[in-house]
Structures are given as structure tokens and as C-alpha cells.
Amino acid sequence: MTLPTRQLGPLTVSAIGLGCMNICHAYATPPSEEDAGKLLNRALDLGVTFLDTAAIYGLGQSERLIQRYVMHRKTEFTLASKCVMDAPDGKTRVLDASPAAITATLDRALQRLQTDHIDLYYLHRPDRNVPIEESVGALKDAVQAGKIGAIGLSEMGAGLIRRAHAVHPIAAVQSEYSPMVRNPEVAVLDTCRDLGIGFVAFSPVARGMLATGVRDDRFEKYDIRHTMPRFTGDNLAHNLTVVATFEAVAREAGCTPAQLALAWVLAQGDHIVPIPGTQNIAHLEEDVAAATIAIAPDVLAEAATIFAGTIRGARYAAFAQATVDTELLPDEELAA
């Protein structure tokens, strides 16, 4: 199957990619390795040509699963991974964007993937202790050495993007973006458009909330949504009433809520590539179909208004927000 394509700097990728965090951690019990492999291969069979992983996902397990199950099909996809957030000893998580740490993380990733080249390599988070110029400089060296093809940034605001881009062209900036989460609209989307940088939207179905995957806050023990204020208690109860309106619009349009969310993200600019993640092949097929379904502009416009100023609770808990540079929305600034 062939999907529409979009550009991330010099890279041509399918309009919808696959986020590969879910196959090993973060939400609920991970699938078996065999089922993760089936999901990865089904994504490629459906025409997905962009897989996104990171050193920290499963403490390297996501990269290992990609190597085991689909690296023999590497000519069919563009691979992105990330550094800075890592667990060098396999246990303790760290955030370190020093050149030495970046180089070590990249070398471990290449070893896990059993390759000598990663197409797109991101700084996963800003490191307040290391100037962005030094971190990008380390990745520039990796480009020149042939270890990576292009440089990306994740959860960084407009100022850092411009500083990074001055050191070496940035191919892609990644942040959370969905009809519910609009932070990139403050400054990041325009900055990317101005500089010719692609934008990669993670959690485009709002960590399952726009995919009928959240109905209460009885998450499994290690589910990261336990720590996110908008996914718990009274905040979640209120937010689900707003989501019900979104779901009704999707039903009227003849698509699923996830497809409406993804179609909306795609409609916000041709430099935007959403990367939904899932553990379920049926959900994967549903998501990928959003790249080719037609939804009327008035429906997309209606979807855009539902969440304006209506969602309660911060996107991250305070400890996680401290690692993020993406701009806050005006109402979030007031709450802070």
C-alpha cells in the first residue's frame, strides 16, 4: 500500500508515521515481543515509512525490537531515534545533553539497532545545564561522521529551535499536538514553517483520550498517565464530558474519533506528520486510514473549537514540565 508523503527537511516520509514507545512501555502492559514484531511489520505493510523510537523507550527495548523484527526491511522506512534521555547503566534514567553523553547514547543505539546509520536523530529534551549549541554541535559531528542523516529536536520552544538551527539545519521538531493539545500553535509551528523545518506530532490522539481509550483513571500501575493532571480525578471526569462532544462530531462525520483527530492534525499544515502509537493492529489500521479519508472542512473547523479553553489539568506534572521548553498556552501560564 502507498500512503501520501510529506517532507521532514531532506526526508520524505509517509503522512502518518508510527510512534514506537507503546510497544515496550508507558501505557498498560506491553505486548509480547512477537506481537510487537507483528505490529511493526503490519505498519510497513500498510505503507507507513516512518518509525519513531528513542533510547529511553523501554530502556533501549524499543530499538532492540525494531532491530529484531524490521531492520531487515530497512529500505522500506525512515528511522528516527533520540538521545539526551537515557539510562546508560540500563536502570537509572538521566537527562544529559553533553556532547560526551550524546555520543555514547548514539553509539549504544547503533549497536542495539545493528546499523551504522540512523536517518533522523533527536535531542529528546533540552538540558538546562548544556547550551543547545554544544548539543547540536555533537549531532553535527555525527552527521559529518555518517552516523546520522538529519537532526531533530523534541519539546523545544521557538527560541531554542532558532539557536539550534543556526548551528546546523534542523530537519524536524517534535512535540505533543492534537485537537486537545495546542501548545505548538503558540510559536513552534510558525517557527518551523518559517525555517523550513518539519513538525512531528506525537500523541495526536491525546494519549488515547481521543481514541476511546480512556474512560476513567484506573490505569495500570506503571502507566504514565497516572502522573498527568488532566488524566486523573475531577479533571478527567470533566475532560471526558468535552471528549464526548468530539466523539459525537466524529460519529456524524462517519469516522472514528481517532481518525477525526489525525485528519485534523494533518490539515493544520503540510509540514506536519503525526505519529500515533498503539499496541493493537486494528487500531493501527484505523489510524493509517486517516491519511486517505476525506473529512469536510466544516467538520474539521468544528473539531477545532471543542477544546478551546475547556480542558482542565496540566499537560505534565511539575517534575516533567520542568524538562520541557515548548511554550505554555495563555491559560496554562495563568494557572502556573
Automatic annotation (TrEMBL):
Residues 16-302 form the NADP-dependent oxidoreductase domain. GO terms for cellular component: cytoplasm. GO terms for molecular function: oxidoreductase activity. Keywords: Oxidoreductase. Pfam families: Aldo_ket_red. This is Aldo/keto reductase.
